[in-house]
Design brief:
There is one protein chain. This protein has helices at 2-35, 45-72, 81-114. The protein is mainly alpha-helical.
């Protein structure tokens, strides 16, 4: 019974990590919509910093949590090391590719106000 609780805790941690990563990536994508109409002159430097910092922080935190689950949790303890490394590498590449796509999309939307 104790082992099942331990596994459930790690499952919850994995879900939180995935949610943080997805939330951060959504925040990156959302930047394009937020600034599409132009930079608000009423925005403070703190608001602008937060708009760029929080998506980065959430994506990084979520990715680190998921990496820990993949590499060191009981959920993957029966996997051979090579399988864990491949899962980690796949996850890392997916996050990087998604960051690139979200950033490109956001940048493309904002680019129209820079010309």
């Amino acid at each position: 019974m104790e082992n099942k609780k331990h596994i459930l805790v790690w499952c919850f941690i994995a879900v939180v990590g995935i949610a943080l990563t997805a939330g951060g990536l959504f925040g990156v994508w959302l930047q394009g919509l937020f600034y599409e109409g132009g930079f608000s002159v009423a925005a403070t430097i703190g608001e602008v910093r937060a708009a760029f910092t929080w998506p980065t922080a959430f994506t990084t935190a979520g990715s680190l949590v998921v990496a820990a689950v993949i590499l060191a949790s009981p959920l993957t303890s029966l996997w051979p090391a090579s399988r864990r490394y491949i899962a980690f590498l796949t996850f890392a590449l997916l996050v990087l590719a998604t960051c690139t796509v979200c950033g490109h999309y956001a940048g493309s939307r904002v680019a129209s106000i820079l010309h």
